[in-house]
Specification:
11 helices, single chain, globular, 9-stranded mixed beta sheet
Length: 290
């Protein structure tokens, strides 16, 4: 069984995403693809190779992994966005016959117990197409990254309306009343950690590259959710820095708004009966008000 993973970088120095690489080295991942969208990080390939050589020699278990054929593959690529970059890796993973593929952010890290538990769960539940574990801030606080399908108010309101005005709506959208303590089948899982069944990706398609950044995770999870379960799985936890770049950069804010518009142009702004049905099912599952 081949398991692959991909990290998309953009002007990242090795030290910035070393934790996620170490997490993947210690996990049952056979191939890691680093898709580099930078235009000025010419030394990164050599740094990655040297880093992998040193780390994989450091422990007997990692040495055995390297001897068994583990690969860290560096792929420079023109910047075609977050989803587009991961699509480069997904195509390579399909050629390798990968059964599962992890899409993961550079600012994520996790313990060696995470991947085996997720893989075992997926093996035992073939109706699951995607899993995201509990996601924590570095200080241990819970990030509410398993959500209902958004309405325009949910996405645009979060960017433009003061938090205290839409606090109650946000809590509903982010499934706060679930308590984040049990496995939930939800239609929107964050792109920071998307553990994907490759047969599901082959069936529904990869990331929609019209989304340069933001909303590509909503779109893909929604498509998988129509045919498989897409689970929030709190039995294991990961850590995520979660920088909220679009709140600090005008350029990223514009890209974020453009992606929101494209998402609702694709799926519907006001009239989206599928959204209503899916969200109703989610609220019934967590025992909320329908």
């Amino acid at each position: 069984m081949t398991i692959t993973a991909s990290v998309v970088t953009y002007n990242h120095h090795l030290l910035e995403f070393e934790p996620v690489l170490r997490s993947l080295f210690a996990s049952p991942v056979d191939i890691i693809y680093v898709i580099d969208h930078s235009d000025s990080m010419l030394e990164l390939k050599d740094e990655l190779q040297e880093f992998a050589r040193i780390v994989l020699k450091g422990e007997p278990e990692l040495r055995r992994k390297a001897e068994a054929g583990f690969r860290l593959i560096y792929l420079p690529h023109n910047n075609n966005g977050y989803g587009g970059g991961h699509n480069v890796a997904l195509r390579e993973a399909m050629k390798e016959g990968s059964r599962y593929h992890l899409v993961v952010n550079p600012d994520v890290w996790f313990g060696p117990e995470v991947m085996p538990k997720i893989i075992n769960y997926m093996e035992e539940h073939p109706d699951v197409g995607q899993i995201m574990p509990k996601v924590l801030f570095p200080n241990g606080g819970i990030q509410r990254l398993a959500k209902m399908l958004p309405t325009p108010l949910d996405l645009i309101g979060r960017l433009c309306i003061p938090h205290f005005i839409i606090k109650r709506r946000n809590a509903l959208f982010e499934l706060k009343q679930s308590g984040f303590t049990k496995i939930l089948n939800v239609p929107f899982l964050s792109g920071c950690f998307m553990f994907l069944r490759m047969s599901a990706v082959d069936e529904v398609g990869m990331f929609d590259e019209q989304f340069f950044m933001y909303a590509e995770d909503i779109d893909l999870t929604r498509r998988i959710h129509k045919k498989y379960k897409t689970l929030y799985y709190p039995c294991v936890s990961i850590y995520h820095t979660f920088t909220r770049g679009s709140r600090k950069s005008l350029r990223l804010l514009i890209i974020h708004i453009q992606s929101i518009i494209k998402y609702f142009n694709k799926w519907g702004w006001i009239k989206d009966e599928e959204r209503k049905k899916i969200n109703r099912n989610v609220m019934q599952e967590i025992g909320g008000i329908v």
